Amino acid sequence: MTNTLGEIIFQSIPRVSFQTPEELGIHLAGARSPLIAVGLLNSWKALEEWTPSYFADRYGALEVTATVNLPKTGSPYALRATDHGRKMKLAEFVELMASTSKACYIHQMSITKLPKLIRDVQFEAMLPANNVRVESMTFISECQLI
Questions:
Q1: Could you read off the pLDDT of 21-34 as tens digits, one per residue?
Q2: pLDDT tens per residue across span 55-71
Q3: How distant is the alpha carbon of residue 33 from its chain centre?
Q4: What is the pTM of this model?
Q5: Top-level CATH class of 43-141?
Q6: Which of 83, 88, 120, 136 pairs with 44 at a CA distance of 20 to 30 A?
């Protein structure tokens, strides 16, 4: 959002706790602004089990597209002379992520490329019961939780 002078105005996004998908649905039905929903994922196995070593051990041979050696400031896309994209094995990415201070991430991919992960998440439980197809995407990065 910007004001008439072109200055960016930041508004905080509220965190709202939900214990059931039904609670979230009721809230979203009347929602007119964004929110960060918390609480619904607390029982997911993914929160306990998904670590970098978990992915390296189980899917280390999977070829992924990664963006690596990103600058600490500025946009890497402004530096067109530097190619930050790499194809590598997932185990190589995990090793790189642990050994560098530079930001890096794996491009999002369908969770179907990592089929055993589907048992660890329950996206469908948070959707209306109208047979909507869910395409779950996985994003792996060196980052901190917000």
A1: 778 777 777 777 77
A2: 999 999 999 999 887 87
A3: 21
A4: 0.62
A5: mainly beta
A6: 88
